[in-house]
Amino acid sequence: xxxxxxxxxxxxxxxxxxxxxxxxxxxxxxxxxxxxxxxxxxxxxxxxxxxxxxxxxxxxxxxxxxxxxxxxxxxxxxxxxxxxxxxxxxxxxxxxxxxxxxxxxxxxxxxxxxxxxxxxxxxxxxxxxxxxxxxxxxxxxxxxxxxxxxxxxxxxxxxxxxxxxxxxxxxxxxxxxxxxxxxxxxxxxxxxxxxxxxxxxxxxxxxxxxxxxxxxxxxxxxxxxxxxxxxxxxxxxxxxxxxxxxxxxxxxxxxxxxxxxxxxx
Amino acid sequence: xxxxxxxxxxxxxxxxxxxxxxxxxxxxxxxxxxxxxxxxxxxxxxxxxxxxxxxxxxxxxxxxxxxxxxxxxxxxxxxxxxxxxxxxxxxxxxxxxxxxxxxxxxxxxxxxxxxxxxxxxxxxxxxxxxxxxxxxxxxxxxxxxxxxxxxxxxxxxxxxxxxxxxxxxxxxxxxxxxxxxxxxxxxxxxxxxxxxxxxxxxxxxxxxxxxxxxxxxxxxxxxxxxxxxxxxxxxxxxxxxxxxxxxxxxxxxxxxxxxxxxxxxxxxxxxxxxxxxxxx
Lengths: 265, 280
Known about the structure:
The structure holds 2 protein chains of 2 kinds. Chain A is mainly α. Chain A is built from 11 helices and no strands. Chain A has 2 domains: 1-32; 43-261, MetI-like fold (Orthogonal Bundle), CATH 1.10.3720. The two termini of chain A are 35 Å apart. Chain B has a domain at 4-76 and 196-279: P-loop containing nucleotide triphosphate hydrolases (Rossmann fold, 3-Layer(aba) Sandwich), CATH 3.40.50.300. Chain B has helices at residues 48-56, 95-106, 112-125, 141-154, 171-188, 199-205, 234-237, 241-269, and strands at residues 4-14, 21-32, 37-41, 63-68, 71-72, 80-83, 159-163, 191-196, 208-212, 220-225, 278-279. A 7-stranded mixed sheet of chain B has the order 6-7-8-3-9-10-11, with helices on both faces. A 4-stranded antiparallel sheet of chain B has the order 2-1-4-5, with helices on one face. Chain B starts with a strand and ends with a strand. Classes of the chains: A mainly alpha, B alpha/beta.
């Protein structure tokens, strides 16, 4: 075996060991609750796998407000998230380009951004509910806020560090503003922007679950909370894994886009 | 008045420690005639690239100014185009796209087909037909600078500014591309201002060579006429007695006189220095 293949083999083995260790630990913890002891105990891997099988077998059914297929709930969450995320991305990229192009503006705005950044997007929820009087829109706005800052900061950094050579060429060629924006600034800063977009979609996905727990109605966040109220822990655990998987897929998708816009000089 | 007039240009830079200003070069004055190839030679730090950038409009003169065809230069314009030492190609664009960006800017009224045809012609002229859809990262230094030349020539500027264009290219390729430049220049008869510290390159390409003393407080010391017949090729001129004479004159200047004249200039600087230009 070549060293590279050895390395890959070892990685695969470690990975399987970790998985097995996790499943065993889970089974032990789940078994400790037992049927005889007080409290139902959490369900073990097998029970959750069975639940997953049934739920994935019929993901899109709709039997009233409290009983919808998991796929349907995921769809609601994704739609809501994408609405807020896409709007935030456009605003963040435009603002980031402005901030990155003007060091004075960046310095002026930076203290405010630093204050806004650590605020949990959920903290805005009451304010949004009060002003919008619509839970769905408030949730979208929470997503908007949650995915604004990473993209904005990364875009500002990317635009601020564009090589002077490219700026000189656009000055020499007297490029018009739209052309300078689309042909020079955006592609030059694209790797940094994509890095921001990847962080943002992660925070948006984290925020949507929490927001939906608060607003109720539809979505995976609501699903988790509803199943908790039903004491259906099988479904709760399944949903936790599913949320993680969707997060990985979103990140993977943007990672692919990042590879498309990467360049080296 | 010459076609391109560098009119008593002085440049100050702020001291790195912020305590004042240092004079990079003072009172540089010369003219470039239409269709002339003028090269400026000097040690690093004499401000020759700064002079080129002032002509390009990317930097401004502290004192004096640059006049092109009777009009003062107030910033970049499509009548001047630069070929950069570090190529300055857009790395996310292919060869074609890089040239196309320049052509579209130079001829905003052209149709897409006209632009494509022009781009194709210049890409072919520099022999990059087969690499036209590659990005700069996949090209060698020599190929990158061919794109730089195609981009600059394709905009048909009144003045072509070459900023040590071959400094980052290996010696063997350099010769080939220099001759390509001669060929393109002979066909287009652009006015060219080049900056280099390669003496052989300066003699091969130029009609006149401007010699700068060392910086700070650099001056234009001398304008040397290159009286070698054109077309020139490296192989031919190397045996000309005139070539040997010029070469030894310029190298002698760079090694000894540039330093000596600078010290003299710094000494006179306080007393309001005057130009040192002599024309041979």
